[in-house]
Amino acid sequence: LPDGTAYVLSGGKATAIPASSLPSAKPTATLKDGSIVDISANQITTYQPNGQVISHTFSYAGEGVAIFRMGLGPDGNIYGSTVLPAYLLSITIANAATPSIKNLGLLPYGEVYSFGSDTKNLYMAGYAYTYPLATFNPAQPFSGTNPAYNHSYIYEDLRPSAMVRDPNSSTIYIGATPGYGKLG
């Protein structure tokens, strides 16, 4: 899991274990002849079984990632996310003539479908998220614990495209597409 917890599944039970106790992952980019391929930055390196290493540099930077959803944050800035991969970004609009855009970091899995906020936090409802409701405090740096993912919130609906927060009860209402086999 993103928090570093790993589980051993055996006999119908899931037992938590430290991720450090897991064996190293085998390389997945192995060719039929046993060569291993590694891609980093702008270089492809092939490690052949006979020990020979072949590297090729490429200049293709790829296409940019489009902004998928946007919402107003508690600090008056605009927040948004891209889709697959989902990056969280902020747009500082204090000076409307020259707003600044900052990539805050990569969100785990899925995509943010709606944003909401209160006086302190930005809330994000996601589709195919590890945890479908996340809370981000813009006053703190983006990190492994900010945003925080709500472990207890589980829903079977899809694409949470609307979010409203009740200021009197702090309850968040989310409108989503019904899950598979459910009525609209």
Explained architecture:
This protein is mostly beta strands and 184 residues long. Helices cover 0% and strands 48% of the residues. The protein contains no helices and 15 strands. The strands form 5 sheets. The protein has a 4-stranded antiparallel sheet, with no helix packed on it. A hairpin with a 2-residue loop joins strand 1 and strand 2. The radius of gyration is 21 Å and the shape is globular. The two termini are 32 Å apart.
Element string (H = helix, E = strand)? EEEEEEEEEEEEEEE
The order of strands across the largest sheet is 6-7-8-9
- List how many beta strands DSSP finds: 15
Average pLDDT rating: 84
Summarize the structure.
The chain is 0% helix and 48% strand. The chain has strands at 5-10, 13-18, 36-40, 43-47, 53-57, 67-72, 78-82, 87-92, 100-106, 109-117, 122-129, 133-136, 148-149, 158-165, 172-177.
